[in-house]
Amino acid sequence: MKLSVIIPVYNEVPTLAEIIRRVQAVKVNVSVGFANQTPITLEKEIVVVDDGSTDGSQEIIEAAAAEGGIIAVYHEHNQGKGAAVRTGFQRASGDIFVIQDADLEYDPREYGILIQPILENKTKVVYGSRFRGGPTKTMFFTHMIGNKFLTLVTNILYDTIISDMETCYKCFSADLIKDMPLHARGFEFEPEFTAKVLKRGHRIYEVPISYNGREFTEGKKLRPIKEGIKALWTLIKYKFID
Of 32, 41, 83, 183, which residue is the least packed, with the fewest Cβ within 10 Å? Predict the structure, then answer.
């Protein structure tokens, strides 16, 4: 069984080499079962999608690819996180996919807890929640309020109870997206994916994760008001269309 790690990249020179190193270093070992736990070791592939970076990120990716540790894909122009993630899906060949941001906010050592519910056939999709008790660096207030509001809208529109719709750590069986049209090009990928998963009758399983949020001075790109409006419209739109 293989895990595909999808890493979308746009201008991440300060952290890119380190996140690639961390993902390469992590061993994906998962204990399955309760009474007699069975250890499962997953093969791992890393798909890094450069979304038209202009800061030297492409050169870092090229160097890593030359060493044979990653699959590198390049967009000629910047298209957005959603477009980069979708390109990664097209190139990935694993049985399970996980999305990994390149900014060191999320810890690859937690892949095991994301994958375990899938291997135990509890669900096809797992979200790593920053609000379920894991150690976290304090978020910006506006980001937290925006996420809570969008998550509440998700719960109301799609009759579910999740705590962190906007989390990067979305882990799922590869066959989940075979017949799922995804169109988002930017950060609205998160609500589109969530809406379409829930509309297809899948229940999202959440596990607590750690979170080390970065500052705007460290390169954080999300702008909560602009992206929040897009996300809200996306949630409403996909309630009625596919």
Answer: 41
Name the maximum alpha-carbon separation found in the chain. Answer: 52
Q: How many whole angstroms separate alpha carbon 165 and alpha carbon 130?
A: 10
Task: State the number of CA atoms in the 13 A half-sphere of 109 facing the CB.
Answer: 5
Domain limits at 185? 2-240
Amino acid sitting at position 204: I
The three-point CA angle 24-194-15 to 5° equals 30
> Nearest Cα to 194, choosing from 155, 138, 222?
155
179: region left, alpha or beta (phi > 0 left; psi from -120 to 50 alpha): alpha
The DSSP bridge partners found for residue 83 are none
> What's the whole-model pTM score?
0.94
**How many distinct structural domains can be found in the chain?**
1
pLDDT (0 to 100) of residue 140: 75
Per the CB < 8 A criterion, the answer to whether 128 and 108 are in contact is no
Q: How many CB atoms lie within 10 A of CB 223?
A: 12
Strand partners, 75: 51
Handedness of CA 49, 143, 186, 79 (dihedral sign): negative
Whether residue 188 contacts residue 231, with contact meaning beta carbons closer than 8 Å, is answered with yes
Q: What is the pLDDT of residues 77-101, one digit of tens each?
A: 999 999 999 999 999 999 999 999 9
The stretch 188-192 carries a mean pLDDT of 98
- Tokens for 40, please give them: 């499962």
CATH code: domain of residue 111: 3.90.550.10
Q: Which residue type is seen at 37?
A: Q
